[in-house]
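Standup notes, protein team

Yesterday: finished cleaning the Vicugna pacos set.
Today: Signal-transducing adaptor protein 2 isoform X1 structure.
Blockers: none.

Input for Signal-transducing adaptor protein 2 isoform X1:
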Amino acid sequence: MALALSPPRLPKPKSIQPSHYYESFLEKKGPRDRDYKKFWAGLQGLTLYFYNSNRDSQYVEKLDLGVFVKLRDEAPWGSSQDPGTHFCLVLRNQEIKFKVESLESREMWKGFIMTVVELRVPFNLTLLPGHLYMMTEALAKEEARRALEMPSCFLQVSRLEAQLLLERYPECGNLLLRPSGDGSGGVSVTTRQALNGTPVVRHYKVKCEGPKYVIDVEQPFSCASLDAVVNYFVSHTNKALVPFLLDEDYEKVIGYVEADKENGESVWVAPSALCPGPALPKQLPPASITPVSSHNKLPPLPNQDENYVIPIGDDPAANYVNGDVPSPSRPVVQKPRKLAKFQAKPPKTPVMPKPEPKGLNSVLARKLAVSSAQVFSPTTGLADVTAELEEKLQRRRALEHAAARTGDQQANLQA
């Protein structure tokens, strides 16, 4: 009986190790970690990859150095001296602490990170000539890589859309690259900054001349790549301009996988009903409006949201007690009193008789305090006052004449 031959076993393909500018063991502690965790780390481009071991080809974590802020040395927690094995990577949205085995390893990591971020070899670190040569090679590879790809702050948007993005997401940066609007194949740089609370938006033109990019300013500057263009704006503004990087790590719409009933394939469904908006308040029925006559119509109330100065010239004149008493020296025609304006709904208050004025004991005061049902006539009141004054004058003249006659008689008797 012939036995079936089994196919020969082939050796498993070895995992290809990714090409890194620099790699070594690195202990990492994030903002949510309680202690350091050891990884095999490698730097490639503007990304720092972390692996469980140096044999793995699939990374488990990564850090984007496009949001780099600075590097700083720091002593371990609870120690006042820096042993030279700790440093901190400060990004725009978080701080990551690292621990290495020696001072040389720390300076190497700092040097390579600064090389790919600033596109220059740092000479202010404690490094050997061989280390600087390795960083120079990494710099050449990084420049060649960036020349073939677009920077993260380059977006296919128009001039107006770029302004709206910078205005809506100021925390994501204030410098954005976009295609030029003149159709020449170049790019444009849009920036947005705040000057004393006022937004200032600027647009710069970058010409494409062969393999070079020329920034069209007063003194044109030539760059080898668009990343070099971005670095030029960042370095010449004292890092006030930050490349725009829209955070897309979180989804804005809830979705789920559902099987299609017709063909059985799975499809992604993201209905808008899963994200209901805020409930709108129910509309109240319109209130009944009672018509108001034109002569009793009140002025509209001012808007409470605006500051208005309400004039007081329309207030009713104050009613004084002695305001209608005419002067005895000259005839005065009394003006008709203005009636106070009342609302149409409330009933009119009954008119009460005026109280008798105090301090006037003469006949004039008694005549003025008449009933409210009688209407005061200016002509009749003036005639009564004139007759009363003439009667008083005649009585005074009679008394004076009698007193003078009595004095003459007494003088004749004494004589």
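Follow-up from PR in the comments: DSSP finds six helices and 14 strands in the chain.
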